[in-house]
Amino acid sequence: MINFIALTIFPEMFNSFWSYGIIRKGIEQKKISASTINIRDFAEGKHRVTDDRPYGGGCGMVMKPEPLAGAIRAARKKAPSAKTILLTPQGRVFNQNVACEFASFEGLILVCGRYEGIDERICHNFIDYEISIGDYVLTGGEPAAMIIIDAVARLIPGMLGGKNSAENDSFSHGLLEYAQYTRPRTFEGSEVPEVLLSGNHMEIEKWRLEASLIRTFLKRKDLLEKKLISKNEVKILEKWRRDIEKIIHAQSLRSPDTLSGSK
Ligand code: 4G1
Questions:
Q1: Is 169 a catalytic residue?
Q2: Does domain 190-260 have CATH number 1.10.1270.20?
Q3: 116 given a catalytic annotation
Q4: CATH of region 2-153, choose from 2.70.50.80, 3.40.50.620, 3.30.565.10, 3.40.1280.10
Q5: Which of 4, 19, 98, 142 is deepest in the core (most CB within 10 A)?
Q6: CA nearest neighbour of 7 among 124, 152, 142, 120
Q7: From the CB of 136, is ligand 1 less than 6 Å away?
Q8: What pTM was estimated for this model as a whole?
Q9: pLDDT, tens digit (0-9, with 9 covering 90-100), for 142-195
Q10: Is the CB of 141 under 6 A from ligand 1?
Q11: Is 70 in the pocket of ligand 1 (CB under 6 A)?
């Protein structure tokens, strides 16, 4: 059971996020608990202002520290052993390894920034981890918090049906997924690969591994370079190398400007 608490000035953004699919099921089956805290509830004054002009001047607004501190303290009261995570473009870039690390925590308090960011004193005194979901400009940290929650929640035992377990997906074996097909056999003139209809499970597994490898090589070389490749996978790569060398060798045996004169 992980307790997710999102701190935001727009808590309604999370209403639909908690309400569908695996996240909803996880909440219903008490595998996770999920809630939001409105930072504005901890702002003072008639207008409950959460932002202010930056010291030193410049354009844009900064989130005031007091409402954030109040919201974080309230979240910690609900989840005393939770870690506090700030979503920020300055954070460590989120990936599956970070997701696994976070899945071992008892709770995650996710602080979502708005405007140009939050007062630096909050980062220093209230935050355990600074995390970024990648290099682009957002209008707020809320979508980033949802991405973290989504990736972490599905790693909790029992969240996914046993058949489609977390060990079975792309990043746990470091390759992209092979091409998938379902009915009908012919769709607008395109067929399903013959081997998948054969019922030969050995051949199907061989095809799938090779399809995963070639895909990862063509689309995401960076993943293959990082991966610890198995003996079986090395064999497949060597087979490709021999095939490519054959093609190149055949070319070098041809004298230039013969045949059709093609390049
Ligand atoms: C400078 C991106 C600013 C953005 C440089 C990934 C982006 C939270 C993330 C920004 C945010 C770059 C994230 C930028 C994010 C305050 C409110 C910060 C929104 C804010 C590359 C705006 N992962 N961005 N600034 O987007 O919160 O988590």
A1: yes
A2: yes
A3: yes
A4: 3.40.1280.10
A5: 4
A6: 142
A7: yes
A8: 0.94
A9: 999 999 999 999 999 999 986 556 765 666 689 999 999 999 999 999 999 999
A10: yes
A11: no
